[in-house]
């Protein structure tokens, strides 16, 4: 029997071995074979020329230009839960499936949100710097005082899977739990005891404000001077979502003025940031390099899930975690592709 040709896929970074094996069993794999350096744009445009599948990372912009360079493309499997790096509407219009990697990173990312909450509240990084610079003087009653986490009020903006897991952990710290979403979430309330608040009320009432909302045109820049001015002087602000939700100059000014008291940031407007970034110079700002999902187990699960989605899409099996399947089905029902010319795709 003549074997069927394997679908060609382009993978934009060297992935953990388990994920690479999965792809290689079914597909003809082309790879940007580097671990640390993102694929250069020209290389990506060349790489997708024959590809039916693209496995992308959040560092790759998948837009109309990429789609135009990839006439055979059927699926983009993003190795991230967020997919603001992908023009999903353009993919849908072209009949290209998009998948992401939710669930597998939920608990790991919620852990990191808590690491930032605790580090900012208890001045962990500042404390280490104090020792390293020889500034640790004799114990005194107000040395390195921070704020309590136990028993405080935690407000989560964007209480989806990750935000829900952040709230759940709050129960162990006897916290009062608030959340703000576009719509109230009765299941989350039943599971965590969290209470819905309008956005401004949540900002006014929370001791800890954790952002875990997706980046969309509506959420871009949603935290600026006005929002910081509503927060308590003692508030701690944490962002584990995407940098552009926050106006960084406004946050820097607010932290300098002492409202909110401190911040913990995993994400930035333009990543990576350098050592000269203004937020890094502030002692009350804890910054880490987009490591929300960065445990070996979770990154391996994310890569494997992305590979499984890619293979499923190219072999006609059900997708595990689709992003635009509903929209694609609706489009297909409205105008079946078998009635359209190939050029309409
Ligand atoms: C990481 O930021 C992700 O979206 O998975």
Essential attributes:
345 residues, alpha/beta, Rossmann fold, 2 domains, 7-stranded parallel β-sheet, 5-stranded parallel β-sheet, 13 helices, 12 strands, elongated, disordered C terminus, binds glyoxylic acid
Describe this structure in words.
- With 345 residues, the chain is of the alpha/beta class.
- It folds into two domains: 8-103 and 296-344, NAD(P)-binding Rossmann-like Domain (Rossmann fold), CATH 3.40.50.720; 106-287, NAD(P)-binding Rossmann-like Domain (Rossmann fold, 3-Layer(aba) Sandwich).
- Helices cover 36% and strands 13% of the residues.
- It has helices at residues 17-26, 41-47, 64-68, 88-93, 106-121, 124-132, 161-172, 186-192, 199-205, 225-230, 248-257, 296-314, 325-334, and strands at residues 8-11, 28-31, 53-56, 75-78, 97-99, 153-157, 176-180, 195-196, 208-211, 236-239, 262-265, 285-287.
- A seven-stranded parallel beta sheet has the order 8-7-6-9-10-11-12, sandwiched between helices. It has a five-stranded parallel beta sheet with strand order 2-1-3-4-5.
- Helix 1 packs parallel to helix 12 (296-314).
- The chain binds glyoxylic acid.
- Glyoxylic acid binds at residues 58, 80-82, 105, 292-293.
What secondary-structure arrangement, pairings included, does this model have?
Layout (H helix, E strand, L loop, with lengths): L7 E4 L5 H10 L1 E4 L9 H7 L5 E4 L7 H5 L6 E4 L9 H6 L3 E3 L6 H16 L2 H9 L20 E5 L3 H12 L3 E5 L5 H7 L2 E2 L2 H7 L2 E4 L13 H6 L5 E4 L8 H10 L4 E4 L19 E3 L8 H19 L10 H10 L11
Parallel strand pairs: 1-2, 1-3, 3-4, 4-5, 6-7, 6-9, 7-8, 9-10, 10-11, 11-12
Helix pairs in contact: 1-12, 5-7
